[in-house]
Amino acid sequence: MKVLVIHGPNLNMLGKREPEIYGTFSLDDVNKKLTALAAELGMKLSIMQSNSEAEMIDAIQKKDYDALIINPAAYTHTSIAIRDAISAVGKPAVEVHISNIHKREEFRRKSYIAEVATGQISGFGGDSYLLALRAVKTILSN
Ligand code: DQA
What we know:
By secondary structure, the chain is an alpha/beta fold. It is 37% helix and 18% strand. The chain has one domain: 3-Layer(aba) Sandwich (Rossmann fold), CATH 3.40.50. The chain has 5 helices and 5 strands. It has a 5-stranded parallel beta sheet with strand order 2-1-3-4-5, sandwiched between helices. Helix 4 links the parallel strand 3 and strand 4. It is globular, with a radius of gyration of 14 Å. The mean pLDDT is 98. It binds 1,3,4-trihydroxy-5-OXO-cyclohexanecarboxylic acid.
């Protein structure tokens, strides 16, 4: 089971970026926890972060994975192109958000990705990614 994890724009600034919303943990902390859980669950991970919509789409199109975990960050609310890439590839995809996007500004409540994702996990801080990995394990085992 190979899982592609994509962290979208500005998530490289986790820990320094609006800590009252996104917490004080770094992206490296998230990735270490994900890697440890993947080993425990017997899954392989490929992890990337990009501030570029095009790079994210190229990674989604590569297809050398069984399921996708994606935090599209601000592109969640704007990117029909990322939505179309996920739909085109047709693999299970879990949309992740650190904050609860439904509790924040009105513009964050719209996700173009939710319509093509298997499901969305939002609002559990860094643990949102760990919950997503457990969800993917279940999806791929069924
Ligand atoms: C985010 C929520 C988005 O609205 C925001 O643009 C982000 C991070 C989250 O993980 O909570 O950059 O995806």
